[in-house]
Amino acid sequence: MPGTVPTVSLNDGRAIPQLGFGVYQVEPEQTAEAVATALEVGYRHVDTAQMYGNEAGVGEAVRASGLAREDVWVTSKLSNAAHAPDDARRAFDETLAALDLGYVDLFLVHWPLTAVDGLDIVATWKVLEELHADGRARSVGVSNFQVPHLRRLAQECDVVPAVNQVEVHPYLANEEVRAYGRDHGIVTEAWSPIAQGAVLTDPAVLAVARELDRTPAQVVLRWHVQRGDVVFPKSVTAERVRENFALFDFELDGSQMEQLTSLDKGEEGRTGPHPDTFDYVPG
């Protein structure tokens, strides 16, 4: 039911719903319907990005929902093609126009792109500081940043990222990045929370699911919630959208949490690209 999702406090004084709805790889023509379903179920947090190509559908669904704008948290992310400061400013204006919601609750640098010559994460981040100062991005953060990237921002910039959205799941616990965030007031958001489905057939996950009479996905998502991370599973199937929302009427005990945490494979468990080497810039 709506209103059951806890919030996580950010370092800028705002509070983000801990469970959101992700629209990565949702086709633009399907996005409005998928987000509308999620909002009907009770989600109040939607995560999109410029490179997903579906911001307009997110905005359409939020506007049509009948919900007050301040009751729906909307995140988007800067395109890898727009890291140069003037490009970043133009791209953000395009996001505001596509969403047509007045402001963005959270805007992220999508990838650090330190493997690309000529790009400077500090210069890009300073643009997000501007957007935060003028209120068009109520909170600002980063995505896929490793500890050295975060340390550089800490040394050379004024605003500490509110969040760092990184790959996290039982096969990649990503503890070094999470620990840095915890120590510096940066909330971790977990993308690929079920390792693109890979963890759902793991015997340990299946055993806990049987013990609790829950689905494997619910068990893994609950593991994230109890670790304190923000999570936003994606599905265009209405039943799965409802299922993924039903995380707050059960708990994993200490032993069950440890069973999932012990599945960590370190870098071998990573399903996406490594941030230090990822250099994709759309042409």
TrEMBL record:
Start and end residues of each stretch annotated as Disordered? 262-283
Keywords carried by this UniProt record: NADP, Oxidoreductase
Under Gene3D superfamilies, the record lists: NADP-dependent oxidoreductase domain
Q: Where is the composition biased (Basic and acidic residues)?
A: 264-277
Which Pfam family is an annotated match for this chain, by its short name?
A: Aldo_ket_red
Task: Extract the PROSITE patterns matched here.
Answer: ALDOKETO_REDUCTASE_1 (PS00798), ALDOKETO_REDUCTASE_2 (PS00062)
Q: Which domain of life is it from?
A: Bacteria
Query: Is Endoplasmic reticulum set as a keyword in this record?
Result: no
Residues forming the NADP-dependent oxidoreductase domain are 25-264
Task: Determine if Magnesium is one of this entry's keywords.
Answer: no
Q: Which family does it belong to?
A: Belongs to the aldo/keto reductase family.
Which PANTHER family does the UniProt entry name for this protein?
Answer: 2,5-DIKETO-D-GLUCONIC ACID REDUCTASE, NADP-DEPENDENT OXIDOREDUCTASE DOMAIN-CONTAINING PROTEIN
Instruction: Give the protein's recorded name.
Output: Aldo/keto reductase
